[in-house]
Amino acid sequence: MTFAQTRTSIPEEARKEGLLAVVIGRAVLRVAAATSVVAGWSAAVRSVVTPLGWAVIAGAVVALLIGYAWGWAEFIAIGWGLAVLVAAASGWLVGRGASTIDLVLPTPRVVVGEVAEARLVAANPDRRRFGGVQLEVPVGGRVVERVLPGLPRGGAFDEQFRIPTDRRGVVPVGPARTVRADPIGLMRREIVWSQVVELHVHPRTIAIAPLSTGFIRDLEGTPTRDLTASDIAFHALREYVPGDDRRFIHWKSSAKTGTFMVRQFEETRRSRLMVLLDLEPGAYADDAEFELAVSAAASIGARAIRDARTLSLVVSGRGGGSRGSAMRELPTVSRDRLLDALCLVERDETAVLLPDVTRAAAEVLPGVSLAILVTGSARGIAPLRAAASRLPGGIDTMAVQCAPDGEPTARTIAGLTLFGIGYLEDLRAMLARSASVG
User: Fold this and answer.
1) Rounded to whole angstroms, how far apart are CA atoms 368 and 214?
2) CB-based burial of residue 190 (10 Å sphere; 0-12 exposed, 13-18 middle, 19+ buried)?
3) pTM above 0.85?
4) Rounded CA gap, 148 and 99, in Å?
5) What is the pLDDT of residues 412-433, one digit of tens each?
6) What is the CATH code for 100-200?
7) How far apart are CA 333 and CA 308, in angstroms?
8) Of 307, 354, 396, 431, which residue is the least packed, with the fewest Cβ within 10 Å?
9) Cα–Cα distance between 405 and 286 in angstroms, integer?
10) Looking at the domain that runs over 272-437, which CATH code has it been given?
11) Does this chain's domain 100-200 share its CATH topology with 272-437?
12) 94-103, 283-292, 300-309, 321-330: which has the minimum mean pLDDT?
């Protein structure tokens, strides 16, 4: 059977159905492509037309419909007038304003109150002349506005602006965007040129003396009363029992006594400093007290990191979770990482009670030798004593109560050393006094 015979053998209805399916399939693809194009144009239009612009467009359409339907020349004139107004506003959107705009943050970390600035650098390597548009940069809760001047080919625009640093925290800066808008406000076109950069405003810290309380200045760690068969700190000699390591047999003593004698050691542990920052709002009289407490905790933590001490800086966790969530440990791998984390610390209405935080920290953190509780003046003595009692025995415990402009105080209550500071500089004197007493 030839190809022609095969083709003529196919029923005419089947061929028509196949052609119809092909036509329908191509039509569906074209409609889908047109729909995507229309959707793209629709999204682009929606992104530039303001609510006032949509109102004017709707007014133009309604006026033209009424005017031509009823033959009212006044409505026709109003409709075309509004249409011309929309068309004229669209002309303001033409152009980009620059070829490149960079947002630079020379110093990503500053101390509260220090001067911080960001730089805007715009360049135009193209042949066309750009400029004359508004440049906006969100900075925290406000927007910095500048007018980008005309940039000829090879021209550049470089300007600095201040970033507020009156409070500790993280200030988002950017993105830098150019805005083209008509004077009436019908159209607004934004072009984003940069990413968001963050400025960390660190709490204020002071240099304090090395923390010697609760630490033994030796290389192997802090000897304890726990005895072990293998360590560094020698304790005594005892008779050999089966199972002892023969490497620790003391041969001179064995020769004198006629019995094998082995060395016994004290188990040594590394010392750990724990700083606990209280986040309960009721512990502080106002914001100034909390900021002083954050600065005190940051100063102690920075000193410990500088001294290469094993440090755990703990803040109150949120209630309602597991026991491990009662406390939260901040990163202490470096001073900058610690201060970055303290930028985000705030009082929390759902914070776990201080004694529960201390107990959770004691269970999670082994080898703590010195604990410093940092809180506000509204924290009573009873909760502080309850928190100190949750720590294992043998741990030196201090509490620092912050009351701005108050007189420095020092007292000891039931084994708890309680310091009161009114200025951050008082912390240096108090800790130095504690070290001399210890």
Assistant:
1) 9
2) middle
3) no
4) 12
5) 887 788 899 999 998 888 777 6
6) 2.60.40.10
7) 10
8) 307
9) 13
10) 3.40.50.410
11) no
12) 94-103
Cβ neighbours of 357 (radius 10 Å): 26
- 233-239 sheet: strands from edge to edge: 222-228, 261-269, 233-239
Nearest alpha carbon to residue 112 among 252, 235, 292: 292
CA separation for the pair 431, 413 (Å, rounded): 17
* C-beta of residue 297 within 8 angstroms of C-beta of residue 277: yes
When pLDDT is cut at 50, 70 and 90, the band that residue 434 belongs to is low
Are the CB atoms for 373 and 386 separated by under 8 Å? no
Query: Tens digit of pLDDT for each residue in 63-102?
Result: 888 888 888 888 888 888 888 888 887 776 666 555 678 8
- Grade residue 203 by pLDDT with cuts at 50, 70 and 90: very high
Q: What is residue 152's predicted lDDT score, i.e. its pLDDT? A: 58
d(CA 384, CA 399): 7
Q: Which two tokens stand for residue 318?
A: 């949120």
Domain boundaries, the chain: 46-94, 100-200, 222-269, 272-437
